[in-house]
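Hi Y.,

Following your request, here is the sequence exactly as I used it, all 304 residues.
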Amino acid sequence: MIIDAARSFIAIRERNIVMYAITGITGKVGGALAQALLAANLPVRAVVRDAAKGQAWAARGCEVALAEMDDATSLAAAFKGAQGVFILPPSEFDPSPGFPEALLVINAVRTALESARPGKLVCLSTIGAQASQSNLLTQRTLMEQVLGELSMPITFLRPGWFMENSLWDVGPARSGAMPSFLQPLDKPVPMVGTADVGRVAAELLQQDWSGRRIVELEGPRRVSPNDIAAAFAEILGHPVHAEAVPRETWGALFRSQGAKDPMPRIQMLDGFNEGWIEFEGSDAEVIKGEIKLETVLRGLVAAG
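Below is the corresponding structure, written out as tokens. Let me know if you'd prefer a different format.
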């Protein structure tokens, strides 16, 4: 059902219901988060742009609120009466200089949260959000800076590189050669499955804390491009090797794929390869997930 936000807020307050409003619920992370909350018999409000995409969640017992991530008014209505809110901002993969697309969303979210005043907030950020060098992930740095000023309990969840990014490697792996922008090929990178991200986000939303905190998350072990190739070889039943894509070719390649400005993406890859996109806390402070690389890759191969 599509909610009347004002009526829903009154009903929630009168019945003392702990409601969780989830943005990005139609994606892998938001979907895993919502499923974890529903499995715990907790009420979920699915915040979606398209009513048709909310129907599946309504069938599972969720309330559905319509909102655009750059529209403070609709977001405020969607967040009203929620004890906890999960923010998954859309990613802009070819941003304009200064990241105006991200700032439009960030400022709308901040205005909505100031109006709705939920009890607590969990935001999906990224590994390396503390980096001072500009790169594609700076969009999340800006989000942390702006939303971190809010006077409510807020957690920034910083996961590693998503294992599901290897979706783009399935086709090349089938042919035996897997191009890699992550280099050197034997350099382990913090990676994590989206199911772990959603599960941990659900756990965080159910916790009580004060002020601002950062939680960093990776999978059971770090993964190199060579590890990914070896895992594909095991799954596909034939040899697969990783091949480093020469850095001097990246700009022309990304432009040929439609990028107006390839530098933010190049700078992000430099950050991973050079080590300045990394977790801020110590190894002991980083949460280790449960999902193995092989599990994710098998799912990607089966789906493709």
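Residues 1-16 have pLDDT under 50 and may be disordered.

Thanks again,
Q.
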